[in-house]
Specification:
There is one protein chain. The protein has 15 helices and 13 strands. It is an alpha/beta fold and 403 residues long. The chain folds into two domains: 255 residues, Aspartate Aminotransferase, domain 2, CATH 3.40.640.10; 125 residues, Aspartate Aminotransferase, domain 1. It has a four-stranded mixed sheet with strand order 1-9-8-5, sandwiched between helices. A three-stranded parallel sheet has the order 3-2-4. Strand 6 and strand 7 form a beta hairpin. The radius of gyration is 22 Å and the shape is globular. The two termini are 24 Å apart.
């Protein structure tokens, strides 16, 4: 009976014994916050992405906030963000007093395009100082095309959904997500539902030395101990000209966004499994495509983008609920009764009450059309083919056999 099966959530971390050992080793060691494990995690992520600098932090939201601070976004500035994303992408601009222009997305993939970016910029009422493309579900926006439209405008990739993927460069070659080949910075989250988990954690990658220095400073309360950039030399240096061993100064406000060594130990160990985890997730999505084929009249897999090779974070399907004679809420409840967890990623952010009060109600037809038909099915490393087949069978049952 369906009720006898364990509940299958839409996403879940996958922890093995060596992950536990990596964390307990840190707990028995000398450093719980900063230290060699944090450095090793950043170095490993740099190796994975090909970026010159990695700045770890306490969450993906913190990473986004740090990028807005590092770019000096503030009152009077505008940032362009696709409507189809998690709240934190847009909120990052608001944290520093900047305003947000919501860009529409492709109605089939949920991705911002160079065209929707350009259309959003044309509506700006002030200085557009940054754009935040979002790689969603595991697929990436066309970064080469977005860079061409952006010109010198700073680009920050929200790559939380796409770690381990690659996207196509203008010359046809493939570059890793997070390499910042077409952006100033990329950000990642290591929340438990992501491919690599560290409990709570995030990171920013960049190839820009100045931005990296600002990110590190803002992550650490705004404190500076670098003798070359000290401002108050009279109180900083001793009579021999060396910096006093206790001295630090704060030239600007920062935040306590450091990632702990405990979290980084888990993240470091999981990064070593990234290729395996991505392979399992991608194979499960392919299995879903086969198992859901009989429901093609009302259920479709997301179309694959030609601009990337996905590292699937979510298994999102497009459902014609009207044709199936039902609605999404009823489908989700019926699947939950069969021990299957689902979710919707996401309600377009421009439809949130906070942003409606700020900017009024806006209509973005691509985002609205995408939102109306999406449903995230379970996708996690611990799943089996039998789990996929069960989800597909129960979805077919709930939808009345596929129309």
């Amino acid at each position: 009976m369906p009720g006898e099966r364990p509940f299958l959530p839409y996403g879940r971390h996958f922890i093995e014994d060596d992950d536990i050992e990596a964390v307990t080793d840190v707990l028995r060691g000398e450093f719980l916050t900063t230290g060699p494990v944090v450095d090793a995690f950043e170095n490993k992520l740099a190796e994975v992405t090909g970026a010159r600098h990695v700045v770890s932090c306490s969450s993906g939201t913190a990473a986004l906030h740090l990028t807005a601070s590092a770019l000096d976004l503030g009152p009077g500035d505008w940032a362009i963000v696709p409507a189809m994303t998690f709240l934190a992408t847009a909120n990052a601009a608001r944290y520093v007093g900047a305003d947000v222009i919501f860009a529409d997305v492709d109605a089939e993939t949920g991705l911002m395009t160079s065209e929707t970016f350009e259309a959003a910029r044309a509506t700006a009422m002030g200085s557009v100082k940054a754009v935040y493309p979002v790689h969603i579900n595991g697929q990436t926006a066309n970064m080469a095309a977005i860079r061409q439209v952006a010109g010198d405008m700073p680009i920050v990739e929200d790559a939380c959904h796409a770690l381990g993927g690659v996207h196509k460069a203008a010359n046809g070659e493939w570059v890793p997500v997070g390499s910042c080949a077409y952006s100033e910075m990329s950000i990642f989250s290591f929340h438990p539902v992501k491919t690599v988990a560290m409990g709570e954690g995030g990171a920013v990658t960049t190839n820009d030395d100045h931005l990296a220095e600002r990110l590190r400073r803002h992550r650490n309360i705004g404190m500076n101990r670098n003798p070359e950039t000290i401002e108050n030399a009279g109180q900083a240096f001793d009579t021999s000209g060396e910096i006093n061993p206790w001295y630090y100064e704060m030239p600007e406000l920062g935040l306590n966004y450091r990632a702990s060594a405990v979290h980084c130990a888990l993240g470091l160990n999981q990064l070593g499994k990234l290729e395996r985890f991505v392979g399992i997730r991608n194979r499960l999505v392919e299995r879903y495509a086969e198992a859901l084929a009989p429901l093609a009249a009302v259920v479709r897999m997301l179309p694959k983008s030609a601009d990337c090779e996905a590292a699937w974070h979510l298994c999102v399907v497009l459902i014609d609920f009207d044709a199936a004679g039902t609605d999404r809420a009823q489908v989700m409840k019926a699947l939950a009764a069969r021990n299957i967890g689902t979710q919707v990623h996401y309600l377009p952010v421009n439809r949130q009450p906070y942003y409606q009060r700020l900017y009024g109600e806006t209509t973005l037809p691509g985002a609205d059309a995408y939102y109306e038909k999406i449903l995230s099915l379970p996708l996690q490393v611990s799943m089996t083919d039998e789990d996929v087949e069960y989800v597909a069978a129960m979805l077919g049952e709930v939808l009345g056999g596929g129309g």
